[in-house]
Amino acid sequence: xxxxxxxxxxxxxxxxxxxxxxxxxxxxxxxxxxxxxxxxxxxxxxxxxxxxxxxxxxxxxxxxxxxxxxxxxxxxxxxxxxxxxxxxxxxxxxxxxxxxxxxxxxxxxxxxxxxxxxxxxxxxxxxxxxxxxxxxxxxxxxxxxxxxxxxxxxxxxxxxxxxxxxxxxxxxxxxxxxxxxxxxxxxxxxxxxxxxxxxxxxxxxxxxxxxxxxxxxxxxxxxxxxxxxxxxxxxxxxxxxxxxxxxxxxxxxxxxxxxxxxxxxxxxxxxxxxxxxxxxxxxxxxxxxxxxxxxxxxxxxxxxxxxxxxxxxxxxxxxxxxxxxxxxxxxxxxxxxxxxxxxxxxxxxxxxxxxxxxxxxxxxxxxxxxxxxxxxxxxxxxxxxxxxxxxxxxxxxxxxxxxxxxxxxxxxxxxxxxxxxxxxxxxxxxxxxxxxxxxxxxxxxxxxxxxxxxxx
Length: 456
Ligand SMILES: Nc1nc2c(ncn2[C@@H]2O[C@H](COP(=O)(O)OP(=O)(O)OP(=O)(O)O)[C@@H](O)[C@H]2O)c(=O)[nH]1
Ligand SMILES: [Mg+2]
Known about the structure:
Helix content is 44%, strand content 13%. It has helices spanning 26-29, 69-80, 95-109, 151-154, 162-172, 183-190, 194-203, 205-213, 234-242, 245-257, 297-325, 339-346, 350-361, 371-394, 396-405, 413-434; strands spanning 56-62, 89-92, 123-133, 136-147, 176-181, 218-222, 262-266, 275-277, 283-285, 439-441. The site of guanosine-5'-triphosphate (GTP) has 25 residues, from helix 2. Residues 4, 6, 63, 65-71, 115-116, 118-119, 149-150, 223-224, 226-227, 268-270, 275, 283 line the site of guanosine-5'-triphosphate.
């Protein structure tokens, strides 16, 4: 069995050392330079997203070298490139990206191969969600993720490098952030080993800093959960993390300052029993096939969390604007218990006017809420209110079955999008119900679009 080349990023001197791979991808090695971090970002890889692209959600994973970003992304893509029975959609990517990610996954899964080498450059992945129905194939939205060498975040020389500061700006303006907490370090933390304390004190700080500076929903994704599974619970980890002043204050300040949901998800890209940690902290593959655990959960939470966040943000601005003008009647009357009829009348005139008024006053929201997404926020709220009522009436299982059945009736992109939104919301709220500890702030379960913006 192949051993692992891990985890020199967590040396006992707390020093970040680039991993020395036994398996070398020579085509990529050829791109390395003597540049700042020993990697040569291809400008096209890190290019700014095209301005006219709609319904693309930028999700970025923050985490130091070795936290599991690349393996997580490859395992996530591998899980969702086939439509699984519980979902109405699957993911697809361009040929080069899917070949690369499948290659990474196969290398991870193959017990005779070593783990993939540390990332050498910045790469961008576009995942299109596809819904197949009797009427045809629909591709209503896209997720974009960046993968990069985690050392960028922890190297003090990064601030002076334009490529790195551009990348960090981009990470900051995401629609959702995954802050990866290395399960290996979390295990050390729970075992009161110094390695764990140092991870919180040093390695994760720049990720927390970016999360603090962003307004969007945040998910703390505990990677390598297979190392903790059966030994520690999520509740124990949450309690330990909340003892850390930086972590606790970040969660509290974000919960006070923004309506964004904050979550704590345990995931494993390979599942229990796939690898065992040696006394030197290396991950030795056992020869068993990977069985990823919760791998798609963070992605499923992106849509409901972002739309809920955006809806609450818009409604708060709307109320402020109405106050300033001292005439709520000059703006569309959003604060209604009967959302549905209102939406139909507002769609063509009211929503663009409302968006213009809000963006003039709060230009910072412009990038996050292009007009297409702004509109979707309202239709999401409307459909969510209906879905919540149906779920309460039918019960969870029947409601989930009912959503699955709706796939065959999909006739256009919009209905495909709405089905994905509702299915994601349903899965995530079900997870929350079973694991209330996973919600650090906000959450879908207690959100009701009809009560947002009302006092009290
Ligand atoms: N046990 C276990 N080990 C994992 C898992 N995911 C990743 N690892 C180990 O962690 C190592 C680092 O994972 P990567 O995905 O390469 O980490 P990264 O964050 O992309 O690191 P950089 O590219 O250097 O920024 C892997 O080589 C594995 O040894 C997991 O789910 N379980
Ligand atoms: Mg990587």
